[in-house]
Amino acid sequence: MQAEQTPFLSTTMGADCIPSNPDISGIGVRTAIYAQNLLCFAPVIAHLWDGKISVDELKGIQDQSIGMLAVAFAILISTIIEARAKGGPMITSFHAAVILDLSWMNNTSMFIWLLLYAHHRSKADNLSAIPATWNGWLKALVSPLRHLAGIKNKMDSDALGRNGRVFKRLQGLLLQAPVLTIGSMHLSLMAAIGIWLWSDPAAFGTPISCDPSLSTVSLSIVGRAVRFSSPALRICSLLIYSLVLIPGINLVVPFLIFITLHILHNKSRRRHPGFWSGVEHPLRAIRSRISGTRMSDAESQNNSWLAGRGLPSPVLETRTGFLLVGLGCLAVINIIFVIDVELALARNKNPESQEDDEWGFGQVLALLLLVVPIRDFVSSIIEIRRKLLEHDNFEEERTHRFEDVLQNAIDTNHIDVAKFKALIESGASPDTPIQDHKFVTLFQLAAYLGEVDMVRFLADRVDINIAGETFQ
């Protein structure tokens, strides 16, 4: 059965088998983890509002992710302590499975950072931009290993000797992207607990009060019930956690998934530019309606002109499509985890104990974890408003500059073709009118002066019916 082969687990056991453990499955703990993982998408939306990810924005996401991973480590360490403690809090294989579900969720922010990193490294304005090809990314992934091995530094005369040089390179590699280092270690610790659990579920932590093989003990995978004693489920779980056990290596699979998405998206854009231009236009219109701003006439005309010729619009050069798909997939996976965990707890709720649903001191204290995500969420809203204001100011400044250049061209009877093309391609409307007694638009002036190149450039981009005194 397909559901038995899914590694994302939540559990369903007999109601009389599971003792309460509010430290693990308490409502406050769960709410805090759900909220902080879902709220971490808000800053990303704010950063992507202008289609760009700056170095500072990437660092902000990294800092946020590190903070969330620190909490994730605390949960896993608590699990180990409780599983080995005698006479302390009771943690069963049920609670361990819940923790593993929550731990998969706690990797969300790191995976978001990986997506943004791939986007940032592929930007055309990045000096070290990586082309959206397998060859380009293979070189980028192998480069740190070559540096660690000292292939590029054979003449290094470091007084520390070969071992010292390797240690320094390793230290530099680990500190270059600390979110990956910490995230990889978290995956490894999570995998170790997963292997520990599934190697012998009956021996993990405090034994449950009934025999799983004889009771209604089961797991809920994407909403479907799978018996806890299923050999296929146990083997599949051990296999999955074995794949993410080794630090560093455990990042290869998710990174390859994101890079594959990135490369396929860019390849599709090159092969079907007209389709992507058509898709982008309504999406930008929706975003403009939500933000309260409207698409400029120039942007609309330029995009239509390019789409009609099978060319992608300049806006599409930001290549954020794969990011939206990746973020959407991560959000859906998180929602599935939330539903599965809540279904598991509801189905296995012990009618004799209500501790998991009580808002005690520990549950309220757990909500303090939301302070940083809520702060980031509010900051993201403020950031979106700031970018919208900057966009409006930029539009106004660009229009004024176009008017000044056009007025100067009328006064001197000379058109700087390169300058006008640059302004129009940056989004300025070629139909921007000015108050002049002879000419109203750039197209009229270009036609009057016989600037054939300019006229051809403007022919499909302007409204030729706008009249001035010279063209009555």
TrEMBL record:
Q: What is this protein called?
A: Uncharacterized protein
Organism (species): Mycena albidolilacea
UniProt keyword Acyltransferase present = no
Q: Which UniProt keywords apply?
A: Membrane, Transmembrane, Transmembrane helix
InterPro entries, per this entry? Answer: Ankyrin_rpt-contain_sf
Source superkingdom: Eukaryota
Q: Which Gene3D superfamilies match?
A: Ankyrin repeat-containing domain
Recorded hits in SUPFAM superfamilies, A to Z, give: Ankyrin repeat
Q: Does the keyword ATP-binding apply?
A: no
List all membrane-crossing ranges: 66-85, 97-118, 173-198, 238-264, 321-339, 359-378
